[in-house]
Amino acid sequence: MKRRFRLTSSTDFERVRRLGKSYAHPFIVLIALPNEVDNSRFAVAAGRSIGKAVQRNRAKRILRETLRPLIPSITSGWDIVLLARKPITTAAYPEIEAAIKTLLSRANLLENTP
Description:
alpha+beta
């Protein structure tokens, strides 16, 4: 994911976690908060409940790769955090893709469906 689409600061990450509106799915939690930048920024996290480092990193890679082609169709001006949940370790890629699209739709963040 390109740097301009990443939420890099830990203070921004915590601000979104604390003040953002969350939308839950069995695989993922999406937290969104409007920002003052002209594009949307994303952060991906996986806690220790996912498993050891290999499973956590795999979950984050899958979330980033699933999100990458959707970035042009996401409304600009939002900070978005995706938190992986335990069932993501057994989910197939199409299921994760559908979960992300569902959460973005519920949050009204999709401009048009690709």
